[in-house]
Amino acid sequence: MRRIIELMKRIAKELVRDPRTLALVFVAPVLVMWLMSVVFSVNSTTHVDVATVGVQSSLRTQLNDVKHVSTHRYATTHSAKAALKSGKVDAIVKERDNRFDITYANTDSTKTSVTKMAFQSSMTSTTLKQLSEQVTKLAMANATLQAKMQAQAAAQQGAAGSTSASATPTKKTATKAVKVHNHYVYGDSNTNYFDKIMPIMMAFFVFLFVFLVSGMALLKERSTGTLDRVLATPVRRSEIVLGYLGTYGILALLQTIVIVITTVWLLNVEIVGSLVNVVLVNVLVSFVALAAGIFLSTLAASEFQMMQFIPIVIVPQIFLSGLIPLDSLPKWLDYVSYIFPLRYAADAQNAIIFNGDGLGSIWLDLVILVIFVVVLAALNVVGLKRYRKV
Amino acid sequence: MADVITLQGLTKRFGQQTVLNGVDLDLQSGEILGLIGPSGAGKSTVIKTTLGMEFADSGSAKVYGAEMPNRVLLGQIGYMAQSDALYTTLTGRENLEFFAVMKGLPKDTLGAEIDRVAQVVDLTGDLGKRVSGYSGGMMRRLSLAIALLHSPRLLVLDEPTVGIDPALRIRIWEELRRAVQAGSSVLITTHVMDEAEKCDRVALLLGGKVMAFDAPAKLEADYNVDTIEEVFLKAEGEL
Q1: CA angle at A31 for the pair A25 and A36, rounded to the nearest 5°
Q2: Most buried of the four, A84, A102, B107, B238, by CB within 10 Å?
Q3: How distant, in Å, are the alpha carbons of A135, A295, A306, A309, A360 from that of A298?
Q4: What angle do CA B4, B158, B155 make, to 5 degrees?
Q5: Helices B136-148, B92-103: inter-axial angle, 10-degree rounding
């Protein structure tokens, strides 16, 4: 125990006296996340310009009324196509003999989707309007008919009772204006892509930096020979691993607190669940990263070789943990993502941050992360056998 | 006198290469044993097997009669590697404190022991400085000081005086003699032939075996030469 504490103290001293590593661990994530939040909030609204050729006025008005869509009337298809080519418009809607031809520039798939949806909804609105106009006409005709029939019946019966309630022929079936109110379980109307990826980013940064820093630290011990010298003492291999876990665990705890404070207060991201749970998940992620970093460093002969692990270990994790919506990925990739610890961390963080879930629902993800740590740490203790046989 | 180190029939292969091919060696209590041989002869492998850092493929390595590897026994062995192996962002004192605790020195004697070894290598005034600011010679001295912590009964030094100026080298040898007089034993590997002359016995490792193993004077007589260097060259020539 005494040796573990001494190891932790030494590793901590080395960390504290390395200002660049500290900047990498604390400042870099904050900077990157701030940058991402700015970038993603600027791009949240897409505006589309649509050229119309021969489109009936009711539909044209409806289309123009759609938010973020503006229509421009063109006399000929030729002039509209010229506008499309020059980039003045993003799509052309041509109506001829009850047939619609829509041409999309399609250089921005978001704009194409917006155009498609806007057109669909405009069509529906127009059709509905026409339908309701017909219904009104029919109702009026029906009312007039009813009145006529009653008048005839009254005339047959004689003079009196002309005060019989005659359905007012001008009874209008008023189409009440429909209003839609939007309510948001999480966030508000300004919630954007950054808010969606923020939980994953938090876990990712913790993983990336702890992985690199710990892997490099152990590599340095091997290349300078200090690991051999330490192993020439009665220290146990498990004590060395625990020493690293201890200090880097505390480091990750501090890093998570800094990142959480940044996202909640500086970037105004809403966290529905408990902050303590958010910190807990990240600390677990750091333990996994630490154990993985140390383990993989035994497979690397130099710092550069350690960097070569980044495309294998780091990059797939960030893509498969939900940065790109998992339901849009092919199913087999979804299964593959389960071998990566970040998948479980991202699932847990999403549940806490968006749903406000407590330990009761995320316990399985946490248990799996703990299993990762235990297995990797055990592998480390065995892996150190390469440098001392006992 | 009981053997401090006994190596019997030590064999070690690295892949296709056989580095040690039946090495027999012993270190007696209270002597300085010099292990010499060409680069790649396996001197470091002998050291690593003695310390339990490597498994021998066959044969045995015993320290104080106990089979190596043996973790607990490492507390009684002082090891100085070829490389400096120091934590450069820590001060000299912090390095010494760290390794002292790793070795298991009791808390109450820690401070005194650090001061003692620092004085032996003449680093007392520089203990408060970070190792990154040390000169090459100062780092070597600190490395030796760490090996001397707790006055181990067995000192294993792998080319300790590489790149050391003559004055410092004399000082290191004085300390080794003092340690031996106080009851320690020393296994030292070296390329420096005049150092080999100063050892009590010299073992020449060549072709994976110990080719010659005796007091320097006797070896010189056996090979009919005047210096250990010539013994070395003659033995290599004969191979």
Answers
A1: 125
A2: A84
A3: 78, 6, 9, 12, 37
A4: 35
A5: 20
Domains along the sequence of chain A with CATH: 48-184 (3.40.190), 192-387 (no CATH)
Task: Give all domains of chain B, ordered by start, each with its CATH number.
Answer: 1-75+200-239 (3.40.50.300)
Rounded to a whole number, what is the distance in angstroms from the first to the last CA of chain A? 19
Contacts of B85 in chain A (CB under 8 A): 224-226, 228-229
**What's the burial of A323, exposed, middle or buried (CB within 10 Å: 0-12/13-18/19+)?**
middle
| Distance from C-alpha of A210 to C-alpha of A245, rounded to nearest angstrom | 11
Quickly tell me which residue has 């990336």 as its tokens.
Answer: A208
Residue B236 burial (CB < 10 Å; 0-12/13-18/19+)? Answer: middle
Q: Does ipTM come in above 0.85?
A: yes
Return the sign of the alpha-carbon dihedral for residues B39, B44, B45, B46: positive
In this structure, of A266-275, B70-79, B179-188, the range with the lowest mean pLDDT score is A266-275
Cβ contact, residue pair B86, A234, below 8 Å: no
For residue A167, the model assigns a pLDDT of 47
Number of H helices, E strands in chain B: 8, 10
Measured between beta carbons, the chain B residues lying within 8 angstroms of A224 are 83-86, 88
Kindly compute the dihedral angle of the four CA atoms of residues A340, A343, A346, A347, in this order, to the nearest 10 degrees: -150
Inter-chain contact B85–A6, Cβ cutoff 8 Å? Answer: no
Nearest of B50, B72, B53 to residue B61 by alpha carbon:
B50
What confidence category does residue A387 fall into, taking pLDDT thresholds of 50, 70 and 90?
confident
Q: Residue B36: which H helix or E strand, with range?
A: strand B32-36
What residues of chain B, 173 to 192, have a C-beta less than 8 Å from chain A? Answer: none
| Closest CA–CA distance from residue A382 to any residue of chain B (Å) | 14
